[in-house]
Amino acid sequence: AKTVLIALGFGLGGSYAAVAATTVSELAPPDRAGGALGVMNALVTLAGLAAPAVVGALVDARGTGGYQNAVVLSGLLLALGAAASFWLIDPARDTARPTP
């Protein structure tokens, strides 16, 4: 069961890129969509650079148990990101916001 849940979680998580880019394009004002997509890509890239170092530190500190800690940390970060998205994203408000 753990293997199936991990495979589903990380397998389906890869589809976020198309959904995230579309969401940012829809919500950002047209004159700021490129900048918003650039910021999103920068944050994703930084996370991709940091993740191996964090997992390596966990494995160094905990041995093979560090992998379990890494998976739990990934799940917590995904849950926090989802909660922040539900709380912060309001399509009607965000598309109606005038550009300065």
Description:
By secondary structure, the chain is mostly helical. It has one domain (2-96). Helices cover 84% and strands 0% of the residues. It has five helices and no strands. Helix 2 runs antiparallel to helix 3 (33-62).
Q: Which SSEs are present, and which pair or pack?
A:
Blueprint: H1 2-13, H2 16-27, H3 33-62, H4 65-88, H5 91-96
Helix pairs in contact: 2-3, 3-4
Fill in the keyword field for this structure:
single chain; 100 residues; mainly alpha; 84% helix
Question: What is the structure about, briefly put?
Answer:
By secondary structure, the protein is mainly α.
Per DSSP, what share of the residues sits in E-state strands of 2 or more residues? under 5%
Structural class: mainly alpha
Question: Could you say how many structural domains there are in total?
Answer: 1
Main beta sheet strand tally, sense and closure: none
Share of residues in helices: over 70%
Q: Taking all residues together, what is the mean pLDDT?
A: 85
Distance between the termini: 51 Å
Compute the number of helices: 5
* Count of strand segments: 0
Order of helices and strands: HHHHH
Radius of gyration: 17 Å
The shape is elongated
Low-confidence stretches: none
